């Protein structure tokens, strides 16, 4: 079937859920006096990150036919995300995640999804017309854990690729959701050679390579012939990038991080929003570094508020942040070394 791609549309596939974020950092779930209800789920976060920055996106996934599910669909629409790819399951609940915030803003998760609606999406429920219209198709690995969602994921990838979409993959490892580390590693790598853009964290790099060494050699061990860009986020050390012709690093920004949830999604959403209509960025190192600096800024801003989606920045916020940091870096009385505390598993 001929492609009906619309210019600039980024379609994300996978889970959307409710994050319950403690209103006090540095305490266990049991000790927390209360929680902030925040919409989340990595693929949905990315879709909203794109529209907050003025781009076009759509989300494909399944929600429970409960109040939370309809609330989440409403949040997609309120943020300008096309929700024609969303289906509802009246017999399953929307997934919930309780998040433990450490004092440094990093997180641990406890999930309630046995099974949740996102796990029950079937291939025959996919909006193939919407998927065929994608210029970029972005996904994670949580949708690979169980059937029938795994088959739906593979079908959606196949249709998107046949229609000419650029495939973008952020594994977004959540090890407690998998039966075993070995199964997680096997399934995450089972679709590795399909993606043209891959983003991993330093923790995911260690997990996938089974090596404690974080460097160019370990990163390049994940390279495959179809890959155009490999991104590795390195916590407070920024991010590294690898292409067929060049590689390098981009520094981070200094912020007071209160919650790193969604920082990596903000980063990749910002990046995709800048390259969806100009893929020459992937072959021009100067352009790539500029885009990655913008993506780093978006990730940094996201850590300054609790919750993922509520914290995603607008284009004007990101540009203002960059302008302010440029002024600081040009001030001889202030440090020019900029740091941004990325979530180590975003």
TrEMBL record:
Gene3D superfamilies reported in the protein's UniProt record: 3.40.1190.20
GO BP field: fructose metabolic process
InterPro entries referenced in this protein's UniProt entry, alphabetically: Carboh/pur_kinase_PfkB_CS, PfkB_Carbo_kinase, PfkB_dom, Ribo/fructo_kinase, Ribokinase-like
Metabolic or biological pathway: Glycan biosynthesis; starch biosynthesis
Gene Ontology CC annotation, any one: cytosol
Keyword Nucleus set for record: no
UniProt superkingdom: Eukaryota
Domain Carbohydrate kinase PfkB: 9-313
Name of protein: fructokinase
Organism: Brassica carinata
Lineage: Eukaryota, Viridiplantae, Streptophyta, Embryophyta, Tracheophyta
